Amino acid sequence: MSSLQSNPSKIVMISPFTSVSGSAIRFWNMAIELVRHDYEVVYVDRKIKNGKPLYHSRGITYYSCPQTGYLFFDIIISSIFNLFVFLRHRDCPVLYTLKPAPNNGIVSLLAFFLKKRQILDIDDLDFAYFPEGSSKYRIYKFFFDLLAKRFPIITYHTPNLRNYLVNQLNIDEEKLYYLPQGVTEAFLRINSRTVQRVPRSIIYVATLGITSDFEDCILTLVNICKDLPNTTIHVVGDGVQRKKFESQISQMGLEKQIIFTGRMKHERIPDFVAQHQIGINYMRKTPANDCRAILKVREYLACGLQVVCNNCGDVELFKDVVYIEKSIDSMETTIRALLKSPFRYNEQGVALMEEQYRWNLIMSDFIEEKI
User: Fold this and answer.
1) Which CATH class is domain 10-179?
2) pTM exceeds cut of 0.85
3) Under CATH, which number does the domain 185-354 receive?
C-alpha cells in the first residue's frame, strides 16, 4: 500500500446506518459544523432501500452504500464499502465513526494499524433493541463491547449513557467526552414566534417500524379525537407498521383527524412542525430508551410548541419547559388540558434551544478540546 501525505484538515466520518435515522441526522449535523470550521469531511452512510441519498452539502465528499434489505448481507456489503472509502482517503489523520457497529469493525482495525486518531460516537445501546439472547442481540453486543472499549476518545450525549459506559463496560472516564444532542439549525432559523398555527393541533414525529412505540398511544389519541372533534393530529414518519396503524385509525372513522403524512423531506419538517401547537413524544420505559437523547423534544421546543412526554430518555434536562408525565393516562390528561386552553408560545423552550443546543456552539467546544 503506497503512503500518502497526510491532509491535516481531512476527517473521514462513517455512519453504519441510513440517513433517515435520528443517529444519522445527529452525525450529519456534526459533519456540517466541521466543514464550517474549515475541515474537509468525507462522509459515508447507507442508502435507503429503493431510495436516493438524502444528503448534499458543499464541502462534504459523500458516499452512500447500496443495501439489499437483508441485515446480514448489508453488514458485509457496508463493511467492504466503508473499507474501500477509507483506503481511498487514507491521507486523513482522523477517523470518526458513529456507533460501535459490526460494519465499522474492519475499518476501525485498519485505522488502528495506520495510527489514525480515532473517535467513536455512541448515542444508543443498539443491541438492546433486539430480544436478549437472539443472534442479532449477541452480534451487536459483541461488537459494542469490543469496539467501545478500545477507542481512545468516545463522545456520548446523555447522563444515563455515560453511567452505562463507566459502570457496565468499565471505560475510563478520561476517554469520555459529553457532546450534547443539538437541534438542527433549520428549526432555529424559522420565525416560530409569528408562524400561523393550526388551532388544536398535535404533532407526533417518530419512526413506525418494528420497534415503534406508537401503538401504545393509539387509544389515547383516539379518545382525545372522539371527545374533542376539532382536534387535528399529524403523525410524521414511516415504517413497516404504518399501514397497520392507518388501518386501525380508519376502522374507527378518524382518518380525517389522525393523519399519517409518511416520510417527509428533512427540509420540510421544521416549517411543518411549527404549524402545530402541541408536540408529543412517547417511548416505552426500557434501559435502551433511557440512554437515548430525544431529538424530537428538542425540535418541538425550538419551534415554540408545548411539549408533552413521558419520563424516558433525557427529558429531565428539559423539565422546566416541558410536561413530563409518568404514564400515558397522565399524558392524555395534560394534552386535553392544553387543547382546552388558549395556546401559549413556549418562549422559555425556544430560548433554551438557542442558548445551549445550537450545533455550532456544541461543535466549537468539541473541536477546540478534542480534534
Assistant:
1) alpha beta
2) yes
3) 3.40.50.2000
